[in-house]
Amino acid sequence: MEPIDWNYISANRVWRQNLMKELLNTGEEIETPKLKMWRDIHDDSVSLESYWYTFLSPKFRRPALLAFRITVFSALPLMLISREVAHKFPMFRVLCLYGIAYSQETVGEQICMLCTVFQMCLWTVLWGTLMYVFNVLEHDVAWWCAVFFGTFFVGLFGEVRCKRLSIMMILVIMEVQRAQPFANGPYLPIYVARDICLSVTFSFAQALLPPFTMSKRVDDAMAGAWRHMGVMMRNCVKGCWTENPLEAAAALSKTSSEPIQAMFTVLPPQLNMVRYEPWESPLRWQLRNERIKVMGGIMPMLHALAVVVKTIHSLDLKRKESDRVRNPSVDIVRGRLEETLEPYLQAVEETLRGLGHALNPKDVVKKVPLDDPACDDVRSAICH
């Protein structure tokens, strides 16, 4: 589906408004603006160029690369290991399954998963050893009681990251011990934990080829939020000051803060994963956390700005319908402010864009234009 040519529609509307004025003044009709046809509007087929752009887009390349990493560096090696030396691994049937399940996209998520799995393996060894020490495998009633009370005991812990995996491994290790009662003797829990550590090692290897960092994802999301604030402010001003109703409607439709709200939903868990990346210092993590708090304090003002702009626009439409006489002084003030308002909005966007790319306070002072002269121009235009 082709995009709508809003510029043509706006120009056509202005042409219709000026047509009668020119006919009354000069008697000459203005030439109608020509509509640009880029392709046949009745053709709904997809070209090969569209597939090529889709193939090169980041939204396709990144999931494809992630699937390739998991398949080549995690799934296939574990399948070959489980096939060739199955007699050495009690968990050979699910080595590949664990490798795929524990694979993450970014380095921070993968290190977090690595720590979680190591905790789970320690609990697996401890619980499996207790089953042998108390000879639970020889008594069905004791075995079922261990299943119930073991999962209940682990469930009593609070917000522990490995709680669900530990509950799962209680059942897994007990079923493996029941299915192979004479295999490896009391060392079977250690071998099971070794197999799981082998799977998560391959999962960690795939996360490094090539590495994607959670810190970059968080910084990009925060930079996008700062840019959206600047665009939102520009659209609010345009919705108030523009004379073209189509431009005003298009600008007011872009004053929503939903992208920033979505960022507040996704960013805190991602920011937690940044702690696990070894090259990120606690200071940089704290600076990111403070930025999120600052944006949270700005959000009520942005909501109020959007509501006020929409209210002013609706009242202005009602005033234009009831009052046909224009005040010349209003046009003078409007023209004087419009000359300085555009540079001011450009300076605000540049400042917000710079805040999105500079995290260190020293970089903020050097790179972000905080003292743009456009602010003084707007202030003087308002005062005079």
UniProtKB/TrEMBL annotation:
This is Uncharacterized protein. Keywords: Membrane, Transmembrane, Transmembrane helix. It comes from the Eukaryota. The chain crosses the membrane at residues 64-81, 111-135, 141-160.
